[in-house]
DNA sequence: TATATTTGTGTATTAATTACGCTTATAGAT
DNA sequence: ATCTATAAGCGTAATTAATACACAAATATA
């Protein structure tokens, strides 16, 4: 009997704004059934690399500019995760700087939307499971890889970085120790720009030196942010 | 155009014996071409979960008893990784206690064999890439999850555990600090059995308390073995 | 009984983490 | 101009963890 299994890719795209973690969803219309929100994704073309399939779908459906992308997990244990056919989904984990991404000028914006992670609606298929898997990956990786920077603008304030960690990890941090530790790595540099926010001492903008990080990483350096 | 992509699973099965890391390979015969050694695996059945497919293939081809199994990575970026058809492979990472596994009494043993990791022959398809990915995973995970125990017999000597770490990570360790650290976790317990090896002070056998580890893990404990 | 071999243990030094509070620069109100 | 509120920036002492390092104990064999 010939194999009759389809292969799709789906992307969990995280963004961070106004002190909140967001995920990007699209409105999935299938048949006459109720429209569910779903992760962006779709079937892989015959002559298309998996990674190109995700990139294509992201471009077509949402037009986001990707800062970080890696394979997350392949979902294929539940035979009926898609009720129409057997579909195996290779899920990807994506981080973007949502401040610079204008979602989809070209498609109707109603169908693509950011949802605060605490306010995600019911999702199609097993997409909730995929999202939860991605969230676990995000939390884990944040502590041992400098991926937090991929959720922020190129130049950011320490308070923003700190809030990002607190928010996503749902933990309190000592502001001073956090700053000290990050700076001790030598992968974050201060700029000469200052925040123009009112009502307090102006804050310096900083930026992440990715090149420096990659070099240190090669030399055996371990990034790690962990809190009691 | 209909999707025409096949989906397979492959397993990288690691074992550890006589102070060496081994990988399990099978002889792949296809057509009249030269037989290559390859990772155990094969196509997924239409109504079969991915994980069941790996387990089935492992059972059919090698008959090993699995101690640890997790999804490794899905290889589907190289369109031509299999020259016959487009095949996407979901690779799995498997650890076994090779001392208790008798490989394949039922199939001809010539076709299933352990290879020391330094002596792996040329492999079929992109299996070398898959193996390297698994090896990287093994090295990384050894430092932050107690998976070394899944390569050892239920009861083991400290010297064996220590050698396993040294061998796989290709690093020297201070014997005393290593022991102190492992014991400080409280997840390894001494038994009352002693080694009967000759020529030195007899060594106590220890065993890993998995239940205890899982509990500590839930409480926020972090296993970590890292060396300068 | 002496020698070789492997296991088992302790401590001092150094480095990293944690806990903690005051000063500075700005905006806005008076 | 002065006062108040707000957030940023900085330093140090106390605690905890990691590292470096050497000798004693138990066995087998000569």
Automatic annotation (TrEMBL), chains A, B:
The keyword Cell membrane does not apply. GO terms for molecular function: hydrolase activity. It comes from Flavobacterium cerinum. Keywords: Hydrolase. PROSITE patterns: NUDIX, NUDIX_BOX. This is NUDIX hydrolase. Pfam families: NUDIX, WHD_NrtR. The keyword Hydrolase applies. Residues 4-137 form the Nudix hydrolase domain.
């Amino acid at each position: 009997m010939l194999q009759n299994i389809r292969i799709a890719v789906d992307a969990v795209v995280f963004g961070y704004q106004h002190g909140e973690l967001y995920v990007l969803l699209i409105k999935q219309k299938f048949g006459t059934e109720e429209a569910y929100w779903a992760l962006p994704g779709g079937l892989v073309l015959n002559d298309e690399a998996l990674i190109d399939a995700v990139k294509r779908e992201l471009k077509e459906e949402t037009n986001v500019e990707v800062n970080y992308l890696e394979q997350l997990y392949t979902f294929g244990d539940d035979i009926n995760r898609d009720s129409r056919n057997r579909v195996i989904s290779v899920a990807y984990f994506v981080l973007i700087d949502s401040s610079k991404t204008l979602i989809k000028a070209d498609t109707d914006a109603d169908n693509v939307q950011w949802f605060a992670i605490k306010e995600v609606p019911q999702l199609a298929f097993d997409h909730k499971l995929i999202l939860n898997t991605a969230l676990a990956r995000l939390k884990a990786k944040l502590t041992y890889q400098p991926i937090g920077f991929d959720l922020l603008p190129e130049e950011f304030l320490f308070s923003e970085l700190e809030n990002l960690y607190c928010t996503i990890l749902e933990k309190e941090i000592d502001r001073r120790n956090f700053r000290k530790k990050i700076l001790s790595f030598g992968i974050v540099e201060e700029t000469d720009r200052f925040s123009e926010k009112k009502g307090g001492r102006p804050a310096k903008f900083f930026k992440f030196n990715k090149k420096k990080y990659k070099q240190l990483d090669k030399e055996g350096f371990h990034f790690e942010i962990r809190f009691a």
